[in-house]
Amino acid sequence: MVFLQQLINGVMLGSTYALVAIGYSLIFGVLRLLHFAHGEVFMVGAFIGLGAVVYLHAGPLVALLCAAVGCAVLGIVIEFVAFRPIRRRNGSLLAPIVSSLGVGLLLQEVATNLFGAEQTRFPPQFEGEMIRLGGLFVTSTQLFILGTSFVLMLAVHLFVSYTKYGMAMRASAESTDVARLLGINVDTVIVLTFAFASALGGIAGVLVGFAFSAISPFMGVSMSVKGVAIMLIGGLGSIYGAMVGGLILGIVEVMTVGYLASSYRDAFSFALLIIMLLVRPQGLFSGASAAKR
Amino acid sequence: MSDVPLLGVVGIGVTYGGYVALDDVSCRVVENSIHALIGPNGAGKTTLFNVISGLVKPESGSLQFRERRYTGLRPDQILVMGIARNFQQVRLFPVLSVIENVMVGCHSRLPRTSFRDFVLGPLGRDKVDRLARQRAAEMLDLVEYRGDTKAPPSQMTLVDQRRIEIARALASDPQLLLLDEPAAGMNPAEASQLSEIIRKIRGLGRTVLLVEHNTRMVFSLADEVTVLSAGKIIASGPPSAVKSDSAVVTAYLGNV
Amino acid sequence: MFNSYTESLAVFFGINVLMAFSVYLPSSAGLISLGQGGFMAIGAYTSALLTAKDVPFAMALAAGAVVAALIGVLVAAPAIRIRGIYLIIATLGFGEIVRVLFINLEFAGGASGLSGIRPLTTLWYVVGVCFFVGLCLWRLRTLTLGRAILAVHEDETAAEAMGIKLLQTKLIAFGGGAAIAGLAGGLFAHYALFIDPEQFGFSRSAEAFLFVVLGGSGNPFGPIIGAAIVTLLPEVLRFLQDWRMSFFAVLLIGCAIWRPGGLVAARPPSRL
Questions:
Q1: In degrees to the nearest 10, what's the CA dihedral of C178, C183, C184, C185?
Q2: Considering only CB atoms, which chain A residues are within 8 Å of C91?
Q3: Distance, CA of A273 to CA of C82 (rounded, Å)
Q4: Which of C181, C237, C175 lies closest to C15 in space, CA to CA?
Q5: What does pLDDT average to over chain B?
């Protein structure tokens, strides 16, 4: 029973990871960029959610919406200010990484100046009542997070597979040249990708705030590193890989903390990463871009 | 001139996906000779070079150097064994100067610099560095390069860059020199100068296997000619015999 | 001669220069590492544990560097075939694994870190090591090894065809970088007198990487300049107070857009 309970915790944590990782994969797919600042976008989302709850007395869904919109805008700004000028000027592989590190640092510094370096309390949103599902007890918080995450993942899948914009995104990820030849405005797709990915990251941030009742300006740093690790495990550029990888990482982390010691939490995650790199560098699901490597 | 085969190519086959680049290619290069490999575009000449120099692994067949099988060796091992090459598109190192580029060629033949020499180097005591520079200068002289040796190669003309690349290959003291279209982009005067240099190299006891489109140069220079077309050897022998071979004529005319 | 604040600034600058060198050496062979913090940690802990057992400082420092180099080679050997972005991720992963490893090593203090380290680092030590390493790197080009490293970075195929052993050359460059980071770690430990795993995480690795990017990777002076900018700029920008790092972040973005070859571009910005 305890095992299943832990499994649910793991899936819950993993689903938030998955949402962030999807954002990483989308951006990597279209731009071949490791967007280190995405973890900070996740962090900003959490703070927007906090603001919505505290100052607007918003309910959970409205908080999510605020974070989604706020982060989408942030993502678009980042693309215009930090990445587009680089693409216009040169095709260096390193310059976007440097820019991304700079953006991440900037967001972190601004957040620290505004909110202090300590953790900030995130008011609990749900009654915390336990709901019985079969033999298991789930809190309403967990249920909400799980539900929202899975609905969003489904939405991503539908969007990417069936809508015009989703298919344009996939085409651009395959090859920007071919996409242009097909009449797709790649620049618009890139902006859209940033908006979409950042919105997902922001929502994940608020969900984490719900889950742990505390957020800090530094929560993005470990997320950045984990996001890259998940992308690698799942396959660079693969959205489904990101979902699966995120879930796996969440489960592994929770299980490690539950059954071993909390100090080992990151050990298995990164051991997994190294093993994947050596055994199957293209990841579990070779995304469109990974096939080219 | 002895008849000892320096290089033996036996039944080499290379396929890319469904495309057969080389089909059962066999060839012998005799020591101390100039052996030319010709054929229409796309015949597989550069692929064969890549196989001989270890850049491409063949699916079938074997390679022999002085009767010793060496298929599967890495390019750097093949260089140490005694086969050096240039590249069709000239692959010099832009960040190194002309003389440094050629010095890279002698890396494998030099002793390691002692630590003392490394530290005292600026005072002019580095023996290995001097040896390398001397050798590099000699090679550049052999290929009749008269330009600045301290400048980066990108500043030199194409013809000079080709010379530098050949000097670099020669710096490793190879028994067999593979030249991939060394005369490309040269006018007749430059091409005939290059022919003289190649004869000089043969005169020093080396063997040259060269791929060339300049048929006049090939037929006046080579001791032996092998013709490759669509991945298969269609003729091999002295220039006079090959020139009049009907299969060869068809291969060339058929491609016009 | 120096007051203690200037002295500590100079020491940290020197350590940063070493970290910059540790990224510079592998990068000149084409290997980008975002995990040098891990090697710094190995050097720091190894030397600190040794001096606690009365091993002379110089030997402990050297041991730290050697252990870091050995681990660097061990880790890089299977990974060296990995290309481009995958290698960057692998080094990132390595840096994190080292951090996690030290969190779990009880005899090295675990998550609470190691304290009571002997204050053996002096400014002269730091200057001496920096000078020595810098000199070696500058003179490297006169060695066949130095030319081999550059050749491998420019054109692996041509380099291999000229007899250069690719694997060996890359491993030497990577191991050398790890050793330098190990030295930096040892010097740091015996100045800060307290170390814990969190000090050597991704931020440290990213910072070292940025030194080289900012300063330019064409010659050994670039990393020095990059380290100087990052370490000394906050001092110059004192008046910005809490917004110093934000200004630095903006500088990074600007640099990425307008001067991707580094502020001191010794050679034109080349591919990865």
A1: 90
A2: none
A3: 14
A4: C181
A5: 87
In this prediction, the residues of chain A whose per-residue pLDDT falls under 50 are 287-293
Q: What are phi and psi of B168, to 5 degrees?
A: -60, -45
Half-sphere exposure of residue B62, counting CA atoms within 13 Å on the CB side? 7
Count of structural domains, chain B: 1
Quick check: C103 and A281 CB within 8 A? no
Q: Which pLDDT does position A282 carry in this prediction?
A: 63
The CATH number linked to B235 is 3.40.50.300
Establish if B105 belongs to a structural domain: no
> Three-state SS for B6?
strand
Chains C and B touching, counted as 3 or more CB pairs less than 8 Å apart: yes
Residue B27's DSSP bridge partners are B9
pLDDT: which is higher, C181 or C144:
C181
Beta bridge partners of B229: B232
At least 3 CB pairs under 8 A between chains A and B: no
The pLDDT tens digits for B126-167 are 777 888 889 999 999 999 998 888 999 999 999 999 999 999
- Structure confidence at residue B253 (pLDDT): 62
**What confidence score (pLDDT) does residue C89 get?**
80
Long-range contacts of A266-269 (CB under 8 A, 24+ apart): A266/C96, A266/C99, A266/C100, A266/C103, A267/C97, A267/C100, A267/C101, A267/C104, A269/A226, A269/A229
Which residue in the set A34, A92, A261 is minimally distant from C260, CB to CB?
A92
Percent above pLDDT 70 for chain A:
89
pTM of the predicted model as reported, rounded to 2 decimal places? 0.85
Q: Which two tokens stand for residue C64?
A: 């730290």
B57 — phi, psi (to 5°)?
-95, 125
The tokens describing A158, both together, are 């539908």
Q: Do B108 and C163 touch (CB under 8 A)?
A: yes
Q: What is the pLDDT of residues A150-177, one digit of tens each?
A: 899 888 888 888 888 888 888 887 777 7
What is the C-alpha separation between A33 and A90, in angstroms, rounded?
A: 14
Instruction: Please say if the pLDDT value at position B256 is more than 50.
Output: no
**If one looks up domain A2-292 in CATH, what number appears?**
1.10.3470
Chain mean position to CA A137: 27
The answer to whether C167 contacts chain B (CB < 8 Å) is no
Torsions phi, psi for A130 (to 5 deg) = -90, 135
